[in-house]
Amino acid sequence: MSNSPVDYQAADRVATITLNRPERLNAINAELPGALRQAVERADQDPDVHVIVLQGAGKGFCGGYDLQEYAETPGEMHGNQDMPWDPTLDYAMMSRNTEDFMSLWRANKPTICKIHGAAAAGGSDIALCCDLIIMAEDARIGYPPARVWGIPTTMMWVYRLGIEKAKRMLFTGDLVSGVEAAEMGLVHQAVPAEELDAAVQTLCDRIKGVPCNQLMMSKMVVNQAYESMGLANTQRFANLFDGVARHSPEGLWFRQRAVDVGFKQAVAERDSGDPIAEGHSKRLGSARPRDP
């Protein structure tokens, strides 16, 4: 996998999968979802592997989709079509990515996500598919595009947090620290950054002595409870609505602002708390009146 955006290593019953685009904060490009799935399936098929660890190279785990590259490029792009928009094409694309991310959930072996830096937007989609998450206390996790331009496609927030806390995270688009994520029950543990590697290793050492068949049965019996709650159908709605969010009047405004002034400035305006200017919405075809 030398040319892959994902690195794979296995030793002492642990497979370590590393998102390996550190120059882009491991942002998700067109190749990464499939490469991640291949690595997970490789570990799952290896009888010598008992535990799978997912991590990110460089300064953070994953900053989400590579929107600085995509969003600032004029014209049709990966994830945004020229109008009129065909939602079926968008749904097919995002569903494939979600299925790739969910390989971490489907794997018969435990998956542990190690988060340093940030797991933002699509990065949180990936992380929350893992069975257990350990974060650095100063790391951050959240889905800021829930403010404008996105819906989390794996939609694991509600299954990990429950109704009220999940709504809080999606209504605000907040990024929370590892400390707060652990307090709300989103992640298994938060530790000082310098202790992160050791904490993950301690958990791996405890799990890897359990036979693979026992781990498989334990994981399957827990997962089926959530699948019976309608996880697959929730993700169908999420993948469809993610495309709607990127092609709504406000979503088109955000994309145009990214082209005009750069992605970082567009994000600052999106996250400022101010309503999108009425003129922008009308210019992009919104017939709905907006608050002053």
What does the model show?
- It is built from 14 helices and nine strands.
- The C terminus is likely disordered.
- The strands form two sheets. A six-stranded mixed sheet has the order 1-2-3-4-6-9, sandwiched between helices. A three-stranded mixed sheet has the order 5-7-8.
- The N and C termini lie far apart (53 Å).
- Helix 3 crosses helix 11, helix 11 packs across helix 12 and helix 12 packs across helix 13.
- It has 292 residues and is of the alpha/beta class.
- Strand 1 and strand 2 form a beta hairpin.
How is the topology of this model organized?
Blueprint (H helix, E strand, L loop, with lengths): L5 E6 L2 E6 L12 H14 L5 E6 L10 H5 L15 H15 L1 H4 L4 E5 L2 E3 L1 H6 L4 E5 L3 E3 L14 H5 L1 H10 L2 E3 H6 L5 E3 L4 H12 L4 H17 L2 H17 L1 H13 L1 H8 L7 H6 L9
Parallel strand pairs: 2-3, 3-4, 4-6, 5-7, 6-9
Antiparallel strand pairs: 1-2, 7-8
Helix pairs in contact: 1-3, 3-11, 11-12, 12-13
